[in-house]
Amino acid sequence: MRGECKVKKLLIYGDSISYGYLPNEKHQDLRLPLEERYYYSLEQAFPDYSLLVEAKVGRCIPELPFEWEDLQKACKDFKPEDRMILFLGINDYLSFGRPDGERVIKRLAEFLEDCPRYGIPFPKEHILYIAPPSLSFPGDRSYEAFSTLDGKWDASLKAFCKEKGILCFSPFALALPRFPDRVHLLPEGQIILGEVLLQFIKEKDFLA
């Protein structure tokens, strides 16, 4: 039809950071305002894209049947020409009994291999993986060993994505202000993340 404009679509699939979770003592389901979440800058910069944010507190890289079902539901109106930003891996890493970054990479590899089998429409060149920010838990007996400040896990994730032909954005080197739990980002942390991610996406023409 003459004058018809084809809408481009972007799926952002993530965990509590993408959800904009606001930590609180009562553990209520509270979220940061939209304009204080990292992808708000993407919405402003790419008005020709329709963004769908599917984020959930505690979400891991899909592995179990219900996890794949969640992703399939999120993808049902998407086509191969659309784009996906995947921001997962922190919960996988912290859920293990001991630090094991390579196990997370193995799970990510299996996920990417299984996407076609589960009908996930995005080809690898249309997927952007956001690697976890640096993690550090000084003074916390339960999680102190899970520090990633040596950069080894981040380097391995970037090397893996390069090998698989997946675009990878790493916020590891960014100073992202956080809540006392040392995982969730304060509004200024979310905004910094969004600004640097936007610059990266423009440089790589991911949403061209």
UniProtKB/TrEMBL annotation:
InterPro entries: SGNH_hydro (IPR013830), SGNH_hydro_sf (IPR036514). Pfam families: Lipase_GDSL_2. Residues 13-189 form the SGNH hydrolase-type esterase domain. Gene3D superfamilies: SGNH hydrolase. This is Lipase.
